[in-house]
Amino acid sequence: MQNPSTTDRGTLLAVSVKSKLGSETVLLGWWNGEGQPEFSD
Fold it and tell me: What's the pLDDT band for 1 if we cut at 50, 70, 90?
């Protein structure tokens, strides 16, 4: 069985980031296990 949190692209990341203004942004990106995660805008 395949782990639902991983795909053939890598691991899906959901990162919650709070800015200095107090607003919260959730970044979705893919972690392929090599280099830096790729985040979409």
Answer: very low
HSE of 41, CA atoms in CB hemisphere, 13 A: 0
pLDDT in tens, 31-40: 656 666 666 6
Looking at the DSSP assignment, which residues form a beta bridge with residue 27? 15
Give the H/E segment covering residue 38: strand 38-39
Distance CA 41, CA 3 (A): 25
- Phi (first) and psi of residue 24, to 5 degrees: -115, 130
Q: What gap in Å lies between CA 41 and CA 29, rounded to an integer?
A: 9
